[in-house]
Structures are given as structure tokens and as C-alpha cells.
Amino acid sequence: MSPSTSPRFFTEREVARHSTKDSCWVLLGTRVYDVTAFLRMHPGGEALIRSRAGKDLTRVMEGPPHRHSPNARRWLEQYYIGELDQESGAEEVQTLRVRRKASEQAEEKSAEKTSKMEDEDENSPYKLCSSVDLDKDLVDWRKPLAWQVGNLREKYDAWVHQPVDRPIRLFGNPFMEAATKTSWYWVPVVWLPIVFYLGWHCYTTLAQGNTRIELTSDFSIPVPKHVFPVLFMMGWFLWTFIEYCIHRFVFHMKPPAHNYYLITLHFLLHGQHHKSPYDGSRLVFPPGLASIVVGLFYMSLCKTLPETLGSSMFVGGLCGYVVYDMIHYYLHYGSPKKGSYLYSLKAYHVKHHFEHQRSGFGITTTFWDHPFNTVIPDEKF
């Protein structure tokens, strides 16, 4: 709800009634929050929040088992809907309802005024979010953000790592804006046919028995078809290292505060994802941008190794990339079973977004975080 709007008041009985997946409310002290939209995204799973619906989360937020970060607390405030009137009894219910009706009328008038100022389409997702104080934020959310963030300078790093539950508009031009968005299913649609075709081509080529590794001009080693699965997995393993390096050294570079262009570049590459981590249209790579990395990966392997061997490793790496993008999307929007591998990955990745932005760079695996000393530390109480 808007910070300028008078708070609505609810009785304990009213709050307790909202304990389903279609309407889930929680308390933090006397503050009431509607967290229905966050159920699927919660790293602990939907069932965990629903089991605490209508209850006070003050002790839960402090932990154990998990102490929620300042960003997590700030995120919760986006779902604030009103206050709990603990002293209200049966005689006061009618008074509360009258008070709530007056508050709702005030909200409607405020919404109409905002609608006229913003001049946006009434069905736009940007109007459905009230998670950002439009008057106090460092950027103007009514305008495209791409050309604004560079002006934040030394304030950019802190601002971009304070996530909001709101879609981002990067460009005013509708074609440029559309080019930055990709539905998750385009990743397997575009890349898996290439994986299957090249995988079959490499295997059948090796099956012909003509592929050899020349050690000297007089000595070479034949490469049988049974080596293909090994080369495939080597390529996949190599991708996990590339994934880690891109995430750590490119996506999480810290642009100089005085450099407008590097700040803008960082925001376009990855900063916008940290600012709005649940913007579903920007959780996977657009195929056009990904093709640059894929092409460089292919050329590097084929220049370093014999063509068939390089292609075999490339297929494994490309498959690893597809799995990476699918897992990344699932970590944001999926609800993995508690105790599973993906459950632990989701919790790990959410910590990276909300608390440990300078560590926890592994997505499909935390393996490379260990030798490079970027593992997210365990919490201590």
C-alpha cells in the first residue's frame, strides 16, 4: 500500500482466515502482510509460510534456523496491507469496517490521481505494483531506467542490491525493450535441437574410426566412439567453470562510481536482475546475446583440439548452459522439495541475492565457490 495512505485495520480473526494458497497473510508485531504473491518464490517453500499464516513472524525472522537479512525485511514491507487491532472486540468490528471503508475510498482517490499523472495503460504490470515509493526512490520509475542508473554514481551499488518486487522497464522504445525479454521456453527450443544434432554428428563421426590424436608426426592415438560420453561430460564440467567466471567477474564487476557507461552496462547485463530478481521475463539469456558466448566457446574448443573432439566437448558445454538457464529460472520460481539438491541450491541462491552479493556465484553447482573461497558462510547464532 502507498506510504501516504492511512493504514487499514484488521481483527485477529480476519487475519487468521487468510491461510490458504489463494490468500495468505502473516504478522510482524502488529503489522499485517499479504504474502500470497510470494508463496512460490519463498526459498523455504510454500508450505512453510502457509504453516505460519495468521501468526507473528517476529521470532522466525530473527532465527534460528535462519536470520533474515535487512533486504529480506525490506522485501517483506512491499506486502504491507495494514495494522492489527488487538483490542477490538465484537462491539468494535463495525467501527473498524467503517474505518476501513474510508481508507479504501482514500486509496481509490489516490490511485486515480496517480493514474492520471503516469498516463499508463490500466492493465500495465507497472501500475499493479506499489512496492516502490515513487516520490522518494533515487530513480524515476515512471520512466525507462537504462539511462538513469549511471547518474546514481556512488549510490548505485547500494541501490541495485536493494531488491524490489516490481517489473523493470529498461527502454522507452518498445522494440528495444522487447529484445531484452525472453520467455524461459525459448532456451530449450533454440539450443536443444543443436545439442541433439551435433551430439549425433560427433558420435557417428567417432564411430567411423577415422578420428585420431596425433602426438608426433609418426605416432597417433585412435579415438573410439565410446569416448564421446567422456568428452561430453568434460565439456559440461568446463561450462560450470565458465558459468562461475562470467557470474563473478563480469556480472558482478563493481563499476567505478564516476563511470556512467560502465554503471549502465552493468545494470543492463546483471544489475537489473538483482534489482528485480523475480522479473520472470529476464531470468534467462536472450538467444541473440547467448549466441556470442556460445560462438566464442565453440571456436576456442575447435582451435585448441581436433575438430571432432572439440565439437564433442562443445555439445556437452552447450547442454550444460541449457541446464544452467533452466535451473536458474526454477530457483526463482520453483518450489523444490525440502531436503532435495534443488532446495539447497534455491536457498543458497536467494542468500546471494538478498545478503551475500559478493559470494555464492555458483548456480548449477557450488563446486567452484570452494577453491575460489566465495562460499556463502553458514549462519551462527
Automatic annotation (TrEMBL):
The lineage of its organism: Eukaryota, Metazoa, Chordata, Craniata, Vertebrata. Zn(2+) 2 binds at residue 349. Its main location: endoplasmic reticulum. It catalyses: octadecanoate + 2 Fe(II)-[cytochrome b5] + O2 + 2 H(+) = (R)-2-hydroxyoctadecanoate + 2 Fe(III)-[cytochrome b5] + H2O; a 1,2-saturated fatty acid + 2 Fe(II)-[cytochrome b5] + O2 + 2 H(+) = a (R)-2-hydroxy fatty acid + 2 Fe(III)-[cytochrome b5] + H2O; hexadecanoate + 2 Fe(II)-[cytochrome b5] + O2 + 2 H(+) = (R)-2-hydroxyhexadecanoate + 2 Fe(III)-[cytochrome b5] + H2O; tetracosanoate + 2 Fe(II)-[cytochrome b5] + O2 + 2 H(+) = (R)-2-hydroxytetracosanoate + 2 Fe(III)-[cytochrome b5] + H2O. It is a multi-pass membrane protein. Gene3D superfamilies: Cytochrome b5-like heme/steroid binding domain. Residues 101-117 have a biased composition (Basic and acidic residues). Its cofactor is Zn(2+); Fe cation. FA2H is stereospecific for the production of (R)-2-hydroxy fatty acids. Plays an essential role in the synthesis of galactosphingolipids of the myelin sheath. Responsible for the synthesis of sphingolipids and glycosphingolipids involved in the formation of epidermal lamellar bodies critical for skin permeability barrier. Plays an essential role in the synthesis of galactosphingolipids of the myelin sheath. Responsible for the synthesis of sphingolipids and glycosphingolipids involved in the formation of epidermal lamellar bodies critical for skin permeability barrier. Heme binds at residues 42, 68. The keyword ATP-binding does not apply. GO terms for molecular function: free fatty acid 2-hydroxylase activity; heme binding; iron ion binding. This is Fatty acid 2-hydroxylase. Keywords: Endoplasmic reticulum, Fatty acid biosynthesis, Fatty acid metabolism, Heme, Iron, Lipid biosynthesis, Lipid metabolism, Membrane, Metal-binding, Microsome, Oxidoreductase, Transmembrane, Transmembrane helix, Zinc. Residues 96-125 are annotated as: Disordered. It is found in: Endoplasmic reticulum membrane; Microsome membrane.
